Amino acid sequence: MQYIAATLHRDREYILPLAAVIQERTSGNPFFVIEMLKMCYRKNCLYYSWKDSRWEYNLDRVFDEFVEPTYGSTMNNNFVAKRLLELPAATRYLLMWASLIGNTFSFSLVKALLKGEPISTTLSDAKVPFVPEEDPVIGLQGALNAYLLVADEDEDRFRFSHDRYMQAAYTLSESYDHEEMHFLIAKQMIEQDFEDSTTTASKSLFVRSRHVCLAINLIRVSSSRYHVKLASLVGPLLSPFRQGLVHVRAFDFIALLSYVTDD
Q1: How far is CA 247 from the centre of its chain?
Q2: Dist. CA 194–CA 80, nearest whole Å
Q3: Would you tell me which of 25, 50, 128, 179 could form a disulfide with 218, CB atoms 3.0–4.6 Å apart?
Q4: Cβ contacts of residue 4 below 8 Å, gap of 6+?
Q5: Quick check: 92 and 172 in contact, CB under 8 A?
Q6: Rounded to an integer, what distance in angstroms lies between the CA atom of residue 33 and that of residue 24?
Q7: C-alpha–C-alpha distance, residues 95 and 109, integer Å
Q8: 3-state DSSP call for residue 151?
């Protein structure tokens, strides 16, 4: 209650009904309290009255926006995912790709993925999120304006401002083909010789191998047209391992070797 009163610059008695609804829906979780206040503002449940020079709210609108079939149910990542659905497609797709890469990512890499081409389908029926007709910078700017991403020290690197945003973006990406997405990430990393300047060479190779491992079932389908393209990705990853130049978890090495063995 104190946080909401301070945010709206109103006395505790006035904000008590609003605070009660927020407490019931968020269980006092600071992240969700802030998210709910932001949602109230975007939906015009919470607004500034220029006539009276103060913040006011419409409790009926709050109930309408946050109605739940079960009394006492609290917010979860689905609420955050719902917020992401309100964003433009370019921003949503950028966040989806980024969520598969990790908490921090290279914009150059994600930009290439957004402008790429699917392997298995036409763009009209793509299994992966592409926005070939839009500037990826617009998608990035949308995420920055919504405070979902923040800039890192490197001008090409960005990170999620909160883990829940990454989790929500990952949830949205589940409607697409994750195996193909991981393959395309690995393909871009290897073909463009992508090196993460913030990691060691061994970790950089581990990141690449992780995406190949997550697409390993796709790689195994020797009769598909993926096969020729994917085969060229595994060799560059296995070579440093075989030479003993890079040490990674045995699981990842076995997963990569299984492709060669089966083939």
Answers
A1: 29
A2: 31
A3: 179
A4: 15, 18, 19, 22, 33, 37
A5: yes
A6: 10
A7: 13
A8: strand
CA–CA dist 235, 239 (Å, integer):
6
CA proximity to 93, closest of 70, 75, 118, 71? 118
Is-contact 180 127, C-beta < 8 A? yes
58-109 residue pLDDT tens:
999 998 888 765 555 567 778 888 889 989 999 999 999 999 998 899 999 9
Structure tokens at 74: 């609290």
* DSSP codes, 168-184: HHHHHHTTS-HHHHHHH
User: What count of residues does the chain have?
Assistant: 263
Question: Using CA atoms, how far apart are residues 161 and 260, in angstroms rounded to an integer?
Answer: 40
Question: What type of residue sits at position 134?
Answer: E
CA distances from 13 to 2, 4, 9, 46, 111 (A): 11, 11, 12, 17, 49
For residue 141, how many other CB atoms are within 10 A of its CB? 16
DSSP string, 50-84: TTTTEEEE-HHHHHHHT--SSTT----HHHHHHHH
pLDDT at 16 over 90: yes
- Contacts (Cβ under 8 Å, ≥6 apart) of 50: none
Provide the residue ranges of all domains of the chain, joining segments of one domain with +: 2-75, 76-175, 177-263
Q: Report which of 261, 177, 178 is spatially closest to residue 222, judged by C-alpha positions.
A: 261
Burial class (CB in 10 A: 0-12, 13-18, 19+), 127: middle
63: which residues sit within 8 A by CB, 6+ positions away?
21
Q: Is-above-0.70 flag for pTM?
A: yes
Token pair in block for residue 257: 């070797």
